[in-house]
Each structure stands twice: as structure tokens, then as C-alpha cells.
Specification:
The complex is a heterodimer of chains A (354) and B (515). In chain A, 74% of the residues lie in helices and 2% in strands. By secondary structure, chain A is an all-alpha fold. Chain B folds into two domains: 236 residues, Rossmann fold (3-Layer(aba) Sandwich); 177 residues, Rossmann fold (3-Layer(aba) Sandwich). Classes of the chains: A mainly alpha (354), B alpha/beta (515).
């Protein structure tokens, strides 16, 4: 390589790097943009009450999006999360109201902690069904989780004949009171749901970065064959991500029914789409191997703030859908542009290095 | 030098890919009504040269003369219009379409309303298939055919082009001997009709049988051009390999130790029937390099896959240091001390979007883990050490591995295997697709590892390599072990002969070749 093109490459490479940095931070920039925009355009937007309310909305989507992120990083997709939310809500509601009838004249009632644990187990179990369908029976993730979406929703509706389980206060003599704590309780001024989100998000981010399992999740998504040859237990990894996704969905089911003090079988419809949108907005690549928990959380905030802010501005819900769709598309277009720029900058650097 | 007219001529043609020169100033003539044979080792530039003729690649420099007229092809369709057809080595078929649809892909026969005339297509396809006597019906789906039959469809497709020049890149690699016979009849028929055939193959016996002219390529140069009747196997091998020695690390004369690894009766059934690996038993000593020589499809990679536990249906037993390995999955076999460096770096060796560091430690993460936490310090230390030890050229190990050159990528794959602390290293074509300098590094590393007491099994289809690096040489053909030589007694001719056993229609007695 001669000197002249090398010199010419230096300025364009560095201006490329600046643009690249901006593009990499795009979700964060988008978050700041929506915050600034709505704090000017919508009155009361920055009030504490509103911020806490919004963060509760965001939290629900963020849980699902975190589970979805791991699934998408392995190269899969989980369409069943919305239905798992609904079914897990119904499981919790049923246990609070009815307990389990042992058919021998006794009925076991569980306390709230036990109910929460059983509900989480149900969510994990449905995730495991997804995982088994995908790893053992080789069903494509899209189809497997689509099937489970219908099955879980159907079961939720069957559990109550389509009715709502109302008034989940429980009875003190049965020890089933206190269910409202998850949805309405506060610790140090913050809603319990937010604390749970913080704990789960930190755990998930730690898992992704500092554990072999996390490393393997990325490796499986990047190149499944190479991972297998390197001794990665691909099936175990996939089982884990779907079970984790189910776990996150169960948390959401618990929080929603606790907030409302009621379980409705249609809860969570189309939640999976919001979760996918948040993950993609946060930089998770649908082709696998790329994504971060932090990015996904920011993505969930962008989507949540966008829809709440638009509501506060009085924008019609029809326009909200159009805007949300456009934001997602723009995010992916910018993502693609970033990839191209990145590889160009890399080639330039290689050329510069000789 | 001949009685056949030249139809196509390449003059001083060169082809440069980013960084590597695949073909250097080649002069090549294709003669009408004759079989023009092209041979060379892997990576010698045969396929590149053919792709230039077929319009798939454009030459960086030089001229192409078609019947004396200067031409340049902008695409393969362009070349097809000029009467040049090609049977590709990798099958270019659509498995989900029928045989007839494949044969007429992109030039479908349509009726007045632009609707595809399926009946007409199938009738015409049947005529071509008839000539190949393969028992293939035109309405069968390609994915339901055996590989050999698929290859015949590919050939039928090329023949149906009615080309003046027909290029065949390893057309017999998956054919049975009966099918090869039929193909040769078809070739004779085409020859009689004045078609110029360019024929590429590794199987020397085949070439000698059907070739009229032979051209030998080595490292992108044409090293010999002759009429076939003037040459013999030894001439071909000499031209292919040349006299100038490549840069192989010298043997250091250390003596191998005890047996460290043994396989017993390994078999792997082929999906299409028969055995891909056929009762292979071999033994390897600590500090020994055992080269496994064989042609494409001889079953070398499949043998390695069986050893690594990648095929559930494989049978046979393996032993490490005398103890049987009962574990059947890759994860636990790696833990027992086996490691594979796969042939296809991109598809099986690397996770290309991860960093160099993550790739290096992917197979050995458990070494750095306390409870469930990856300790950053020891991991970074191991990465830095491996980068230094293998001379991997990378500015920052956090860089994506795909930004490295082929040779450095290969070193990352080797480093990943070494970090697992293997006792036995399986290397499948470790020097494929990497530059000369990196090759020398890889060979030096192999020497060093064997000195450190590792047992190394390495598969290659490069004669030079296998002769220069191995303490012993095993030869595989058609899934079977067909020869086992000590370095001292191995000759190139003997290896070539053993690698052709069980292949092709010709009895091999002609060249059991004692040099």
C-alpha cells in the first residue's frame, strides 16, 4: 500500500469513528430525546408520581424483554411469553382463592410466598416445554412457541371458563393475605416491582458477562456448530434461555394480578411483540449472537415512555401505533447502517495498519 | 503439438484476491474435441482458473481468446451464451425442486402465455438423463437423490447447455465406478461431437485414462503442459509437487513415547447407504505426528468427527492412554483430552462475531471459573500467553476474530484447542486457505507440541505436507484405512496408489509403483 491512500484514509476513518460512536449510543440518545421532548410537550410529565407510574409500566415490558433478549441472542424467538403472563396470573389467582383440592375432603391453601414460588415454577415449566420442543423434537422456535402461545392461552381461559378471578385479598384464617404487596407495595419509596426489576436485571447482566453460561449463550447464537465442537452444551443453553424467559413472564403475571388484585385470563395478549420490539430497539440482533441486557432495558424505557408520553399528550392510540412502528423500523435501519460503517472503519484500520 | 484446434486460449492471466495471488500469469489452451485435463494440489489455483473461464470470476490481468477473438465475460450467463458450461465441484442444485426444474433453471421452457411447460421440460430432461443411464426420473426431487445421482443431474444440466466448451470440476468425486464408466462414455460421445472438455480431478488413474492433454498447476503457476500420451504418473506427481522444498519445520529427532491414543473398529454409516468410515483402527503414541492422507471424501473428516463424538450413530471404541473413553458427547470427550481443529474454519472453528479472546477461551472456560464466576485475570493471562506463543497478529484480543487474516484465524482455532489442555490433537487440513508464513508457523507449532508429548493426528490431502511432517502416514480411501507407512518407507507414489484403492473403474495394479 502506498502512502497517499493511507493518509487519505486517516481523516475519514476518524470521522467514521465519531459517527460510529453516536450510532452505538443511539438507543440512549433516543431515550434522552423522548424524555426531553415529553417533558416540554406534556405537562406533569416529569412529576414524581408520573415517573413512578411510567417506570411500573416499563418494568413489565422490561422483564419480558430481558428473557426475550437471551432467547434472541441464541438465535431463537419466544412468542409464548404473553400467554405465560396470562396463565401464570390465573395460577396465582386460583391458588389464592381456591387452594388445591386434594379430592379427599381436604384443600391445601398456600401462603403468598409459596404461591409466588409455585407460579414461578409454572412459568419455568412452560419455558422448559418450549425448550424441549426446540432441542429434542427440532421444532423451529417460531412454531414451537407459537403453539405454546395458543395452548397456554387456552389453558388460562379454561381455568376459569373465561371469567376473571376477582378480589384476591385472601383470608387471614387461611394465611393467604398480602398478595397485593408485589404490585402495590413500596420499599424506600420505590415500588416493589421496580426493586425486583433491578435485582433481576443486574443478575441477568452479570450472567451475560461473567459466567460461562452467558458466554455460551452468545457463542451458540454466533455459531452453533462451532460451539458444539468447542464442547458447549448447546441444548442445555437453549433450555436455559427459554426457561429464563418463562420465569420472567411468570414474574410479570404475578405483578399484574397483584396490582389489580384480580386475574384475567386475557392478560398479556400481544406482550410478546412489545418485548421483541424493546430487545430489537436495544440493539439485539434477530440473527443471533448480539445484544445486551442494558440495551434492552433502555429499549424498554424508550418504548414505554413513548407510549405513555403520547397518551399524556392526547395523541390518538391509532397514531401511537404508527409512531411506535416507525421508531422500531428506524432503529433497525440505523443498526444495519452501523454494521456497514463498522466493517468499513475496520477495513480502513486494517489498511492503515498495512 | 497436436491435431486438435485450439478453441479457447488464456494469455498471461492472473487473478489476485485481497492479499493472495491465486493464479499467476497462466497460459492455458483448451482444444476442441479433446479432454483437456487440469491437475494440481489443493489451493494450486485450478478452480480459480476454471471460474475465470466460466465467467464466474474476472481475471485481474491477461486476455481470454475465444476462437481467436478477445472476449471478457461479465457473468456466468454471459459465458453460457458463448457456449461455455461448467459442472461445479460444489453441487449447485436446488434440493427443493425437481430434477427437470433444476436442469432448466433460469432458462425454463415456456408456452405462449409465459407459463412453464412442465411436460416439455420433463421430456427434454428425460432425454439427457437417458444418456447418463442413472435411473433418475425428471420429476424426482433433487434432495431425494443420492449425492452421486445429484452429481449426475449436475452433469446432465451442463450437457443440456449444448456447450462448445464443458468444464468439469471433480465430476467423479461422489460417483460409483459404474457411474464413472457411464460418464466416460458420455464424455467420449461429447468429444466425438467436437466439444472441448476441461476435466479437473485428483484421481490420476482417471486422468491418464481419459485425458488427451494435461496441464499441471502449482501455487498458481502452470508448471507443465503435455500431451497425455507422453506422460506417466511420476511425471505428473513431479510437476505437481516441484523440486523446491516448502518451508517445513525440521524434525528434531525426538523419540515418541508410549501409546496415548487408540481407536478400534470405528464405523460410521452413510446416510445414503454404505459406510463413511469403515472399521478404522489405528494407534498413536505420545509425541508422534500421524498424518492421514486421502482424497476428498475419503472419510478423514468423518473419522475425526467420530472420535470427537459428533455422530451418535458411530460405533467402535477409543482409548486414551490405555483407558477406554466411554463418554459419547463432545463436551466430555474434550474434558478427557481430545481436541479437534476442524477443516472448515468459518463454519465450525470460530464464532466470528465474538472477540479473539472469547474465541480462544470458549472451549476451556471452566479452567477460569470459580463457582460460576469467570475470573477475568487468569482468563486474560491465558489469552495473552496464547497470543504470544502462537504469534497471533492482533492488536487487541478484544477485537472481533473476523477482522484477522485467515492464517491468524487458524491460529486462534488452534489456540482454543490447546487451552483445553489436550493429550491428543486432531487437525483436519490445518494449512488450508492460509498464507505461506502462517503455514510455517502452524507446522512449527505442530513440531513443538509433539516434542511436548502431545499425540497429533492430522488429516491432509497435500502430499508434500504429509511427507514432511509425519512420523507415520496412514492412508484412507473410501472410508477404509488402505495403508500405513513409516516415514522412512513412504513414497509419494505408494501414497497416491493407496489413496486410490477402492475408487474408480481401473484395476490399480498398473501403479502399485515402487520408486
Amino acid at each position: 500500500m502506498t502512502d497517499i491512500p493511507a493518509k487519505a484514509a486517516i481523516p475519514s476513518a476518524s470521522s467514521g469513528s465519531l459517527l460510529l460512536t453516536l450510532m452505538k449510543a443511539r438507543t440512549f440518545i433516543a431515550l434522552i430525546a423522548v424524555l426531553v421532548f415529553f417533558s416540554i410537550a406534556a405537562p406533569n410529565f416529569l412529576s414524581t408520581a408520573n415517573l413512578i407510574l411510567m417506570s411500573k409500566h416499563v418494568a413489565l415490558n422490561a422483564f419480558l424483554a430481558m428473557g426475550m433478549t437471551f432467547v434472541i441472542i441464541t438465535g431463537g424467538i419466544d412468542l409464548s411469553v404473553g400467554s405465560i403472563v396470562g396463565l401464570c396470573g390465573m395460577v396465582a389467582g386460583y391458588l389464592v382463592l381456591n387452594g388445591i383440592d386434594l379430592q379427599i375432603g381436604y384443600t391445601i391453601y398456600f401462603n403468598v410466598v409459596e404461591i409466588a414460588l409455585i407460579t414461578l415454577a409454572v412459568g419455568i415449566l412452560i419455558g422448559a416445554v418450549n425448550g424441549l420442543l426446540i432441542t429434542r423434537l427440532n421444532v423451529a422456535p417460531f412454531i414451537a412457541t407459537l403453539g405454546v402461545l395458543y395452548v397456554a392461552r387456552g389453558l388460562a381461559l379454561l381455568s376459569s371458563d373465561g371469567r376473571t378471578f376477582p378480589n384476591l385479598v385472601g383470608k387471614p384464617e387461611l394465611g393467604t393475605t398480602g398478595f397485593g404487596f408485589l404490585g402495590a407495595g413500596r420499599l424506600l419509596g420505590l415500588p416493589v416491582a421496580i426493586w425486583i426489576l433491578i435485582v433481576v436485571a443486574l443478575a441477568a447482566a452479570y450472567l451475560a458477562k461473567y459466567t460461562p453460561l452467558g458466554r455460551h449463550i452468545f457463542a451458540v447464537g454466533g455459531n452453533e456448530r462451532a460451539s458444539r465442537i468447542s464442547g458447549v452444551r448447546v441444548n442445555t443453553v437453549k433450555m436455559f434461555v427459554y426457561m429464563f424467559s418463562g420465569f420472567c413472564a411468570a414474574i410479570v403475571g404475578l405483578i399484574i394480578s397483584s396490582e389489580l388484585m384480580a386475574s384475567h385470563p386475557a392478560t398479556g395478549e400481544s406482550f410478546e411483540l412489545n418485548a421483541i420490539a424493546a430487545a430489537v430497539l436495544g440493539g439485539t440482533s434477530m440473527s443471533g449472537g448480539r445484544g445486551t441486557i442494558g440495551g434492552t432495558i433502555v429499549g424498554a424505557f424508550v418504548i414505554g415512555i413513548l407510549s405513555d408520553g403520547l397518551v399524556m399528550m392526547g395523541v390518538s392510540s391509532f397514531w401511537q401505533m404508527v409512531i411506535k412502528g416507525l421508531v422500531i423500523i428506524v432503529a433497525v435501519v440505523v443498526d444495519q447502517a452501523q454494521r456497514r460503517l463498522q466493517s468499513r472503519v475496520r477495513l480502513m484500520q486494517m489498511a492503515k495498519a498495512g | 503439438m497436436s491435431d486438435h484446434d485450439v478453441i479457447l486460449k488464456l494469455e498471461d492471466v492472473s487473478k489476485v484476491y485481497s492479499g493472495t495471488v491465486a493464479v499467476k500469469r497462466a497460459n492455458f489452451e483448451v482444444r476442441k474435441g479433446a479432454v483437456n485435463v487440469l491437475v494440481g494440489e489443493n489451493g494450486a489455483g485450478k478452480s480459480t482458473l476454471m471460474k475465470i473461464i466460466a465467467g464466474v470470476e474476472r481475471p485481474t490481468a491477461g486476455r481470454i481468446l475465444l476462437e481467436g477473438e478477445d472476449v471478457s465475460f461479465s457473468s456466468s450467463a454471459d459465458a453460457v451464451n458463448r457456449g461455455i458450461g461448467m459442472v461445479f465441484q460444489e453441487l449447485n442444485l436446488f434440493g427443493n425442486l425437481t430434477v427437470a426444474e433444476n436442469i432448466f433453471a433460469t432458462r425454463e421452457i415456456t408456452n405462449r402465455f409465459r407459463k412453464i411447460d412442465r411436460k416439455q421440460q420433463e421430456r427434454r430432461a428425460a432425454q439427457f438423463l437417458e444418456r447418463l443411464q442413472a435411473g433418475i426420473r425428471p420429476d424426482m426431487l433433487v434432495e431425494d437423490l443420492r449425492i452421486g445421482q445429484q452429481q449426475l443431474v449436475e452433469i446432465a444440466k451442463a450437457v443440456s447447455l449444448d456447450a462448445r466448451i464443458l468444464i468439469m470440476d471433480e465430476p467423479t468425486s461422489a460417483l460409483s465406478s459404474a457411474e464413472v464408466e457411464i460418464l466416460f462414455k458420455v464424455i467420449a460421445d461429447l468429444k466425438a461431437r467436437g466439444v472441448a472438455i476441461v476435466y479437473i480431478s485428483h484421481r490420476l488413474e482417471e486422468l491418464i485414462r481419459i485425458g488427451d492433454y494435461i496441464t499441471v498447476l502449482r501455487d498458481g503457476h502452470i508448471t507443465g503442459q503435455e500431451e497425455m500420451r507422453n506422460v506417466d504418473t511420476r511425471w505428473i506427481v513431479r510437476q505437481m509437487i516441484g523440486s523446491d522444498a516448502k518451508d517445513f519445520a525440521k524434525a528434531d529427532g525426538h523419540v515418541p513415547g508410549e501409546e496415548i491414543f487408540r481407536t478400534h473398529d470405528i464405523c460410521l454409516p452413510r446416510a445414503t447407504g454404505g459406510l463413511a468410515v469403515d472399521h478404522v483402527s489405528l494407534s498413536l503414541r505420545a509425541g508422534e505426528i500421524l498424518g492421514i492422507y486421502g482424497l476428498m471424501g475419503a472419510g478423514r473428516s468423518e473419522l475425526f468427527d467420530c472420535i470427537m463424538g459428533r455422530h451418535g450413530q458411530a460405533t467402535g471404541t477409543i482409548f486414551i492412554a490405555g483407558k477406554q473413553v466411554k463418554e459419547r458427547d463432545t463436551t466430555r470427550r474434550i474434558r478427557r483430552g481430545l481436541a479437534l481443529i476442524p477443516e472448515d474454519r468459518q463454519r465450525e472453528g470460530l464464532v466470528s462475531i465474538l472477540s479473539v479472546a472469547s474465541n480462544l477461551t470458549l472451549a476451556s472456560l471452566s479452567r477460569f471459573v470459580r463457582l460460576f464466576h469467570i475470573r477475568g485475570g487468569p482468563e486474560r493471562l491465558a489469552v495473552v500467553q496464547m497470543v504470544r506463543e502462537l504469534a497471533i497478529k492482533v492488536a487487541d484480543p478484544a477485537q472481533e476474530v473476523s477482522s484477522l487474516s485467515g492464517g491468524n484465524q487458524q491460529k486462534v482455532v488452534i489456540g482454543k484447542a490447546l487451552l483445553t489442555g489436550p493429550k491428543v490433537l486432531l487437525m483436519d487440513e490445518p494449512s488450508r486457505g492460509i498464507d505461506v508464513g502462517a503455514k510455517a508457523d502452524v507446522f512449527r507449532t505442530m513440531r513443538k507440541l509433539s516434542r511436548d508429548g502431545l499425540g497429533i493426528l492430522f488429516a491432509t490431502s497435500d502430499l508434500d505436507e504429509v511427507m514432511a511432517l509425519s512420523d507415520r502416514i496412514a492412508v484412507m480411501s473410501n472410508g477404509k484405512l488402505t495403508g500405513m507407512f513409516d516415514r522412512a518407507e513412504a513414497t509419494e507414489a505408494a501414497l497416491v496408489a493407496a489413496s486410490a484403492l477402492g475408487h474408480g473403474p481401473v484395476p490399480h495394479t498398473e501403479y502399485t509403483a515402487h520408486d
